Amino acid sequence: MDTRQLAAFCEVVERRSFSDAAARLGVTQPAVSQQVRALEQRLGTQLLDRSGRRVEPTEAGLRLYRGAQRLLALEDALLTELAEPTAPLRGTFELGASTGPAAIVMPLLVCEFQRDNPRLRVVLSVSDTQSVVEQVAERRLELGIVGAARRHRSVVFEPFFRDEVILACPPGHPFAGRTVELDELRAGPLILMQPGAGVRQMLEDELRRNGRRLRDLEVPLELGLQESVRSAVQGGYGVAFISRRAVETDLAAGTLAEARVRGLDLAREIAIVRAAGRAGSAAAQAFVGFAQERLAA
Fold first, then answer.
1. What span, in angstroms and rounded, lies between the C-alpha atoms of 35 and 67?
2. Contact status, residue 153 vs residue 278, Cβ threshold 8 Å
3. pTM
4. Strand pairing category for 257-261 and 155-169
5. If we measure between CA atoms, which residue out of 9, 83, 36, 34 comes closest to residue 279?
6. Residue 114 near residue 286, CB atoms below 8 Å
7. pLDDT at res. 81
8. What pLDDT is stored for residue 113 in this prediction?
9. Going by C-beta distance under 8 Å and a sequence separation of 6 or more, which residues neighbour residue 70?
């Protein structure tokens, strides 16, 4: 079976669009349409429903998609194994990170990795944790770097590095430098990141372990992701849970202070997320090895 046809078909299924699939593959839309039609003719069945605004796989198309993913993964693994181990990395490597890792370690790691591999184009996108996981599951990104995340049957998680979440406060706040009780958070006031953020999921899990819920804390402000929350705390509008690595400079400069909350264990594992059953490209494998070496130094 022609794996180019299978790759084109899988891109259309994942993106629900011939034009988006063509852009991703770097070919014309008619070329993608022709490959999919040739595949349908060979198999003698319709694989895609083209009648709606978005292209959807038929039942037969879904069955083929699942099998094609396994076949393409095997092909990727074989090509990687046969490639010259010293050949320079080329092409485009796309990865994503949630806002915590994106603010604390990923920019320098990505820049240094690309500098060492000048023929490789590296694209880092930043979203909340759940969005990154979904993009990896849908194979729009090859790798994700995320904080706390709900389990997902289409991806696998691997440990990357440890991070600590603290309660950040304005300087001079009554919580600064203290260990506070859960009930005191109502007087913060507490500022939250949006649903889907890894730090928020972590906080929700820890509160549940202590028999509490977010609504028990009467949270008055929800301000998107990490940078918005950090700015609000610096402005004196409340306190917020945030990665210690993300505010180390602020803590050292005295523009933020920290507190701890009794009963909450807020150390977390930053993880690499990959699509289940997907063999990593040479670029992905090289980046993971490079990053782990740098972080261990």
1. 17
2. no
3. 0.55
4. antiparallel
5. 83
6. no
7. 57
8. 92
9. 277
Cβ–Cβ under 8 Å, residues 98 and 245 = no
**Two structure tokens written together for 47:** 């694989």
Instruction: Collect the ranges in the chain with pLDDT lower than 50.
Output: none
- Cα separation, 129 vs 101, in Å, equals 10
- Give the end-to-end CA distance of the chain in Å, rounded to a whole number: 46
Mutual angle of helices 3-15 and 18-25, in 10-degree steps: 130
Residues 178-203: tens digit of each pLDDT: 898 888 888 778 898 888 777 888 88
Q: What is the DSSP string of the chain?
A: --HHHHHHHHHHHHHT-HHHHHHHHTS-HHHHHHHHHHHHHHHTS--EE-SSSS-EE-HHHHHHHHHHHHHHHHHHHHHHHHS-TTSPP-EEEEEEEEHHHHHHTHHHHHHHHHHH-TTEEEEEEEE-HHHHHHHHHTTSSSEEEESS----TTEEEEEEEEEEEEEEE-TT-TTTTSEE-GGGGGGS-EEEPPTT-HHHHHHHHHHHHTT--GGGG---EE-SSHHHHHHHHHTTS-EEEEETGGGHHHHHHTS-EEEEETT---EEEEEEEEETTPPPPHHHHHHHHHHHHHHH-
Counting Cα atoms < 13 Å in the Cβ hemisphere of 155 gives: 27
